[in-house]
Amino acid sequence: MDLYKLPEELREELKRSRGKVVTNSKELDSLVKAKTIAVVGDIATLELYRRGIAPKLAVVDFKSKRESSEKLKSEISKIYCRVRKVKNPAGTITSELWDSIKEAYCSSENTRIEIDGEEDLASLACIALAPKNTFVLYGLPEKGLAVIEVTEKEKKLVNKILKEMEKQHGS
């Protein structure tokens, strides 16, 4: 069941990057040190693990630039953590994804959510549900990594976007 569905008029709004764009490892290491980290995206997830940073929550769909990749799936599947599998079509946030993110933040274990579909809007749910002292990261192809420190201001902005998205109960 879709909880939120992205209307066409919000697509351009969400293409704008938010947060700080990080392009080098020293800057990333200093930003995320001793914080709860949620990461959305396969390349971004692998990049964190290669740097020795284990996120509390990783959301992946085994795609890069919307193309499926068995290599990505193989590399990511080797990372040990609790795994949840959910369905989430492009342009939506299903209640299954929403509930899995919520559960992951409450778990004592690091969690990887593997999406059958796309994780394109998962960062909105990660921000809306994040506890204090959380950074949400996602990859910006050809640019770097967007790092959003979740503040009350950021949560209000995301909740406003979610309210503008169509609620699709029962679909």
Task: Summarize the structure in short.
The chain is of the alpha/beta class.
Protein model, in words:
Helix content is 37%, strand content 30%. With 171 residues, the chain is of the alpha/beta class. The protein has a 7-stranded mixed sheet with strand order 2-11-10-3-4-9-7, with helices on both faces. Strands 8-1-12 form a 3-stranded antiparallel sheet. A hairpin with a 3-residue loop joins β10 (134-140) and β11. α6 (122-129) crosses α7. It starts with a strand and ends with a strand.
Gross morphology? globular
Q: Give the N-terminus to C-terminus distance in angstroms.
A: 5 Å
Number of E-type strands: 12
Largest sheet: 7 strands, mixed
Q: Which range best describes the helical content: under 10%, 10-25%, 25-40%, 40-55%, 55-70% or over 70%?
A: 25-40%
SSE string: EHEHEHEEEHEEHEHEEHE
> What structural category arises from helix and sheet content?
alpha/beta
β-sheet strand percentage: 25-35%
Low-confidence stretches: none
Strand order of the largest sheet: 2-11-10-3-4-9-7
Average pLDDT figure: 88
Q: Cα-atom Rg, whole angstroms?
A: 15 Å
Total DSSP helices: 7
